[in-house]
Every structure is written in C-alpha cells, then in structure tokens.
Amino acid sequence: MERMKMHSRDNVAEHVEAVRRLFPNALTEVMRDGKVVQVIDFDVLRQELSREIVEGREERYAFTWPDKRQAILAANAPIAMTLRPIVEDSVGRDGTAGAFDSENLYIEGDNLDVLKLLQETYLGKVKMIYIDPPYNTGNDAFVYDDDFAMADGDFHAANGWRDEDGAMQYDLRANNVSNGRFHTDWLNMIYPRLRVAKSLLADDGVIFISIDDSEQENLKKVCNEIFGEQNYVGTVIWERAFSPKNDAKYFSASHDFIVVYAKNITNFSIGLLPRSETANARYKNPDNDPRGPWTADNMTVKTYSATYDYPITTPNGTVIRPTDGRCWFTNRERMEKLIEEGRVWFGENGGNTPRIKRYLADVQQGMTPTTIWQHEDVGHNQEGRQEVKRLFEDKGYFAGPKPLRLLKRILRVANVDEDALILDFFSGSATTAHAVMQLNAEDGGHRKFIMVQLPEATDEGGTAYKAGYRNICEIGKERIRRAGAKIAAEAGEKAVGVDLGFRCLRLDTSNMTEVYYAPDAVTQDGLFAQVDNVKADRTPEDLLFQTMLDLGILLSASITVEEIAGKRVFNVADGFLLACFDRDVTDLAVTAIAKRKPYYAVFRDASMADDSALTNFDQLFAAYSPATVRRVL
Hints:
Layout: H1 11-22, E1 27-32, E2 35-40, H2 42-48, H3 68-76, E3 81-85, E4 105-108, H4 111-118, E5 126-131, E6 141-143, H5 154-159, E7 160-162, E8 168-170, E9 172-174, H6 182-200, E10 201-211, H7 216-228, E11 232-239, E12 255-262, H8 277-281, E13 294-297, E14 300-301, E15 312-313, E16 319-320, E17 327-328, H9 332-340, E18 344-345, E19 355-359, E20 372-373, H10 375-378, H11 381-391, H12 404-413, E21 421-424, H13 431-443, E22 448-453, H14 463-466, H15 472-491, E23 503-509, H16 514-517, H17 540-551, E24 559-564, E25 567-572, E26 577-580, H18 587-595, E27 600-603, H19 611-624, E28 629-632
Parallel strand pairs: 4-22, 4-23, 5-10, 5-21, 11-20, 21-22, 26-27, 27-28
Antiparallel strand pairs: 1-2, 3-23, 6-9, 7-8, 10-12, 11-12, 13-19, 14-17, 15-16, 18-19, 24-25, 25-26
Helix pairs in contact: 3-6, 4-6, 6-7, 12-13, 13-15, 18-19
C-alpha cells in the first residue's frame, strides 16, 4: 500500500516533472554527496529556449557528439520555404491522373524542411510514423548542412540547384567509413528530423524506425533523449533475409531492427495480432470440459510466500508440494475451489503436478506481438523487391524495398484506427502508401498517408534512369499510381470509396520576395514604384498552399474554385477559407466575399483595385462579417 505523503505539495518536484515532459533531454544525472541524483541540465534547457549556443562545464552523464548543439539549432530554426502543388503529377481519389481531390499527400523535398512546414498544421495529428532512414553502411548518401550558421535559404543556394524543369536538386555526398565524422554526420542528419517529427505525433501516437547494426545503438540513445526513455516500447528483430550469405566474413546478417517509441506510453495501446491456427491448435479438450478447449499452465511462482506453500493431494492420492524456492500462485482456499470446479489438470493418470487450465474462450481475441518477426509471417527483402517488379513490368528499381506484409504488420501493431494519419518521411519506394491503401481496401478504412522523399537522382547508368525515372520521387509516385490501379482491379466493389490517389506537393523557396520579409530594405526610389511582394513565377495555387500552411489548414482539405463578382476565389474546406489573389478587386467583390461569412478571408496586398477599395475593405467586413479573420499577403 502507498504511504501518505504527510507534507504539502512539492512544487520543485512538480516543476521538474513538467520539464521532463516537455524536454526529457534536459534531465541528467550527477554525483551529489556520493550519490547519483537526477537534476535539470540547465545548459540544455537554456539551449532549448535560446537561438544561441550556450556552454556548460560540469561533467555529467550525457550522450553527445560534435555539432550536437548545432543539430538542436537546426531542429528549432525557422525557415522561409513553402510547398507548391504539382497538379499534373497528382492522382484523384478514384485514380484519375491530374486530379487534385485526394486526401493523401506526396511531398518532394528535404524532409527536415518539409517536417518544419508541416509542424504547425499537423501538430499532434499523426497516429503513426514509419521511417526507413539511411542505415549508414558506408555507401549511403546524405544531404549535409555542415554550416549550421547559414541564414534561411542559404543552405539551399549552396547545396541545391534547379534542373531544366525548375525542380530543386540536392548535393548528396556519400558517407564513407573512412570519414572521420562517420557517426557524427549520421547523427546530425537524423537528430533534428526526429526532434521535429515528435511534435507531429498524436498523444497516443507511435514511431517505428528501421535500422541495422551500424547505428542501432546510437539511434536508441537519440530516441531515449528525444522521446524519453520511459516511452520506449520495444525493439523488433525482423528476419529480412531467408538464406545465408556464404561469402560473409564473419556472420551472415539476416536481420534488421525496428525500434519503437510512443509519444506518451501511458496513452498508447498496442494492437493485437490475429490468433493463428497454430496458436489455437495448442488448446485441446481431452477431459471433455464443458468450458471448451484449454491448455495447461504452470501454477507456481518464484516470489515466495509461506502462506502459498502447502501440499496438494492429487486424485490418485499423490501429495505434491511446490519445488524449493517457489510456491503456488494462490492460497489454499481458492486452490480447493479451482480443483472442485475442474479447472485444475492432474494429468491423464490423475497423479501429475497440478496445472491450471487456460481456456481458449477466455483468452484475448488476439495475440500480443512478440519482438521476433520471421519472414514467413511478414515477408523479406526479396519479397518486397518482387512486389515492386510485378508493378513495373518485372523491372527492379529498388534493391531492398520493405515488403507489404511487414508494413501491414506495423500498421496493425501501431493500432491505427480507420481514420488515422500515417507519415513516412523517408518514403523511398512508397511501400507505406501502398500498405495504407491496401489495408483500407480490405477493411473499409479511411486512413490517410503523407509521404516525404528527397528527389535523389537515379544512377544515369541504371535501369530506372533508362526507363525515364530521373529521381526516386518519380518512381515512388508511379508505384502509388500503379498500386492504386491494382487494388481497384483486385478489390472490385470493396475499393469503391477508397482513396487511391495523392496530392503532389514540392518543397521550394518562399513565394514571397525579400521585400515581404524585410520591408525596411525598400529603397527611397522603391517607395514611388509599385513593389510586388510575390515572386513572378508563382501561381495563385502556390499562394493558396502557403496560405494554408500559414493558417494551419490541412493540406488535404477540399478545394474548389468559384467566380465571385468576376474574380477567381478559392473555397477551402467548405467556406472555412475564401482566398482571392486576383488584381483589381473592387468593393463589389469584397462585399460578396464578406457576405459568405468565411472564418478566414485572404487577399494579396496588391489586390485592391484602388485606394478607395483598400480603405473600404475593413469597413465592408465589419458590416457584413465582423467575425471573419482577414489577412493579406
């Protein structure tokens, strides 16, 4: 039983607990009077609350590496970027090419920047994250930002360029084992991405991360710091290969790890797996027990209690006692009742050590997942490769894509409900998207996915390049298109209503010119000239999506285009947002929009037809829709 506190509230302990919940990495251990005590690392806490690096001198238990504090800055630093809609690459809910009504998202670009852009809109909305990041085997390539002090946008200017289609390309550098910063570079890559991703998880959300031996121990330390050691769910060992490699120098590696952390483990409920025929076959009924099939289980425990240590006389007269150091799991009175009710099994001859009957009817309708997943149950790398080849006329564009059965097992264990949002920001071959659509077709769910992938160029001498796929994103998008068509064909009526498409978005620099962010920089000459604060190559659709990001409106929200008083107006989420980016907007158009009473109304700064319209703008909304939040670009 718990003791009464017998003292007033310990405010310091409460504050420390609050810090632990918000910044688990700010708690550490130090020696005090010969004892290890848990304290707040104020250097780390100041770093979390500062845009500048702070230094600390006291030795402490810590997991660190060169540039770690800069990596924290990289996670927290704001960016001036946006997501631009690519309608021609998108697919509608029913698989129609070039349609833009899907609630799924496929986003091209550096995932750190993309996660930052999604952070406000999707804060706490993602039920499950699965990622398969570079394993750091010595052959992997990362986007390196070695100068964390770069100003917003400078990194992209230094490390990226645009191809002939205007798409941003990135400078990928191989991380060779000979690199003196081998682990450091990998940690600086993964750390800020996980920091930002955590904020997207729902309070009952969970993240699954595939990794191999190269960085498994470092990944777990990083996750302990970011998610909190108390939120560690477990590590799965997946049998990714089914045959040994006889040319291996030492062991033939046949497994990968899947590290699992919850956002808040007290709110996370793990999903049970369907009971297999093999598991049910262990239940028999040799004595025709009316309660049905059962299996016998041990009745002793090692937590010894003299009260539970007593003799039991079997039906044939044999006297049985627990083995030394153990005792029965219950008291004598309850044991006698269990025996009387026929719930104890003494063997066919009635003289064996008693065992409790566990009935099939009483077991949970599902099996608790184990930490070893064999390829017979969830597939292997070759199975994943064959799945991609079957979609692409027997062309293998990925060396080791994850199999669908593995992702479907992860979705089940993550306990995603029928409306859950699933994020994969190392999308690769887009197996996660395929698995989400497949599961929806099987159970009628409405789960949605967000795939994020860097447009890493394909090898010019490779099969994918020769087939016309210039980067990994092109393969991933095509895989989703073909998988959707395959699901529709095979599922038939079950696929009706299932979202088999995606909205394609592409990371780019802001739609706004420098004058928007630094109006003080406008010269005196510029005061007498009309300065457009929107870049010349940006469309109204581009402005709409940056507006949605800024206002925290889901990028999957419904969008229709209407003509109101002769102007083109975007209607988002059934009137929640009305946005007009046309020029020469008159009082008539403003009045018509105000009368629709949207929650948000957005216009361009240069939209108003004349000074009169600009002057009357607020007055018209005050008259017809005073509650509308008005914004201008």
